[in-house]
């Protein structure tokens, strides 16, 4: 007995587009369904663009889903490409009819996405490693997570996540690659092959940040993390202007020299009226491989020093969220695109990062910083 159109359509509704993360039936990507008397099924599928990098994944997933339907004896997939008009309809379906002015969705009243800007006073403190592993831990707990690699000059997030795909452009909307269930965007994805430098000045940096926030289709995120460049330069100022409700996470290492510059990076919140979520001390100690004694390679107390100093500066408590020990596997995982919290979740460093991520994932009952969309009644 040959399968029915209804059964095949139901199977196709379980196929999730790997970039948009919605069923292909909801996205009008199913072009046709033909069922032969002998049970052979031919499915026509629209790709969003020619040369879609996810076409093999979509073909595999459709074949698997339809092949499980009772009575199906074979599956053939025919790929086509959406017309310009179809892509415009898709864009409107995903983002609504916003008109020519692109808005940042995380600034809209009612947005429930919690935004964290991960900052440091200087480079080399492991800020990007912390960002990637926090994101991976949150995604593994079931949250919908995105990362903006806002460190334009020193972008490294794609490598650390193993995100090798390039973004797909649908009209003027950008579909971010997904790695470890994390949506990610970085200027490194738009550069020509090779390790060329990005030579941009302030206005171009601000424009790039706005495009990453407004042009990228992020969907309904629970958490967005921005990996900021070190210091208090143009990007830090742009984030304060573009995302005024973003909370700052300050990453430092224990030594006092690093703590002093980290304090300066965090103190920008006093001028931009942003909230500091807390301080993370990275490379806090090295567990001795022979006796498990903690070796203070970079000194001690820097994280608490920064937290106490920012508490005095801002007049509100800034907590030390955690102290992450040195672990060679954390660095190795970054080089291989495999976050430590996923590959070795029970190691001391991964456990501490997962604890920090769990704490940050808990939404405060306070209304501070939440846009309620209220207008004064005259």
TrEMBL record:
Database matches in Pfam families: FeS_assembly_P, ParA
A biological process term (GO) from this entry: iron-sulfur cluster assembly
Gene Ontology MF: a single term: metal ion binding
Transit peptide listed as a keyword: no
Keywords: ATP-binding, Hydrolase, Iron, Iron-sulfur, Metal-binding, Nucleotide-binding
InterPro entries found in the cross-reference section: FSCA_dom_sf, MIP18-like, Mrp-like_CS, Mrp/NBP35_ATP-bd, NUBPL-like, P-loop_NTPase, YlxH/NBP35
Domain MIP18 family-like per the UniProt entry, residue ranges: 8-76
Stretches of the chain forming a coiled coil according to its record: none
Binding residue positions for ATP: 121-128
Entries under PANTHER family matching the protein: IRON-SULFUR PROTEIN NUBPL (PTHR42961:SF2)
Complex formation: Homodimer.
Main function: Binds and transfers iron-sulfur (Fe-S) clusters to target apoproteins. Can hydrolyze ATP.
Family per similarity comment: In the N-terminal section; belongs to the MIP18 family. Belongs to the Mrp/NBP35 ATP-binding proteins family.
Protein name: Iron-sulfur cluster carrier protein
Organism per entry: Nonomuraea fuscirosea
């Amino acid at each position: 007995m040959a399968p029915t159109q209804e059964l095949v359509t139901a199977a196709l509704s379980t196929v999730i587009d790997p970039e948009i993360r919605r069923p292909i039936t909801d996205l009008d990507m199913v072009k046709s369904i033909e069922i032969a008397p002998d049970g052979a099924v031919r499915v026509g599928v629209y790709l969003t663009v020619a040369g879609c990098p996810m076409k093999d994944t979509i073909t595999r997933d459709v074949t698997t889903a339809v092949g499980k339907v009772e009575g199906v004896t074979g599956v053939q997939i025919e790929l086509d490409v959406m017309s310009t008009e179809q892509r415009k309809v898709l864009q409107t379906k995903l983002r609504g009819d916003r008109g020519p002015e692109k808005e940042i969705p995380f600034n809209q009243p009612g947005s429930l996405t919690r935004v964290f800007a991960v900052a440091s006073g200087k480079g080399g403190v492991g800020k990007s490693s912390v960002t990637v592993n926090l994101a991976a831990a949150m995604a593994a707990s079931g949250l919908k997570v995105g990362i903006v690699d806002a460190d334009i000059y020193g972008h490294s997030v794609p490598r650390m996540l193993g995100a090798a795909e390039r973004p797909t452009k649908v009209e003027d909307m950008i579909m971010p690659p997904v790695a470890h269930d994390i949506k990610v965007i970085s200027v490194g994805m738009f550069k020509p092959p090779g390790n060329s430098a990005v030579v941009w000045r302030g206005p171009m940096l601000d424009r790039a940040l706005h495009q990453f926030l407004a042009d990228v289709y992020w969907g309904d995120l629970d958490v967005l993390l921005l990996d900021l460049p070190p210091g208090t330069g143009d990007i830090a100022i742009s984030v304060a202007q573009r995302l005024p409700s973003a909370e700052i996470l300050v990453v430092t290492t224990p030594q006092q020299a690093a703590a002093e510059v980290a304090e300066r990076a965090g103190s920008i919140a006093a001028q931009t009226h942003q909230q500091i979520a807390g301080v993370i001390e990275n490379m806090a100690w090295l567990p001795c491989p022979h006796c498990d004694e903690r070796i203070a390679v970079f000194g001690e107390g820097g994280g608490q020093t920064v937290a106490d100093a920012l508490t005095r500066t801002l007049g509100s408590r800034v907590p030390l969220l955690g102290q992450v020990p040195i672990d060679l596997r954390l660095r190795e995982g970054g080089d291989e695109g495999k976050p430590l919290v996923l590959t070795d979740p029970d190691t001391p460093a991964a456990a501490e990062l997962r604890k920090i991520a769990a704490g940050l994932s808990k939404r405060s009952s306070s209304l501070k910083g939440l846009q309620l969309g209220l207008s004064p009644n005259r």
